[in-house]
Amino acid sequence: MHELIIVEGLPCSGKSTVSKYIADKFNMWYFDEGSGAHPADYEFHAFIQMTELQKFHLDEQNKIVEKSERKFGGLIVPLSAFQGDLFEKLI
Fold first, then answer.
1. Is there a single domain that holds both residue 36 and residue 49?
2. Residue 44, Cα to own-chain centre: how many angstroms?
3. Could you tell me if 36 and 64 lie in one domain?
4. What is the C-alpha separation between 2 and 9, in angstroms, rounded?
5. Are 32 and 41 in contact (CB under 8 A)?
């Protein structure tokens, strides 16, 4: 069984502190929203189907695959890992 505990509150009210405490106390995973590691936070990610990867040059393909996670039949690409022209192509 999996459990999800969501801690909500006003900015600077101690949400992160309480969340870390709960995670430590019950030996659970802790994800800070906006950290880029949150499993449901794909705001700063791109999804590329494997067939779409061919639109990129070979060196770009290698960089994308190296920094991405294969999931859902494609690649979840963390946009924070790229800059410049390749970043623009990904968004």
1. no
2. 7
3. no
4. 23
5. no
4/18 same-domain check: yes
The residue written with tokens 């695959």 in the block is: 65
**Is the pLDDT assigned to residue 38 strictly greater than 60?**
no
Query: What is residue 45's predicted lDDT score, i.e. its pLDDT?
Result: 82
Q: Compute the chain's Rg from CA coordinates.
A: 17
Secondary structure tally for the chain: helices H, strands E: 3, 3
CA-CA distance, 46 to 60, in Å (whole number)? Answer: 15
Query: What does the DSSP 8-state code read for residue 51?
Result: G
Are the beta carbons of 42 and 74 closer than 8 angstroms? no
Q: Any idea which residue has 């700063």 for tokens?
A: 44
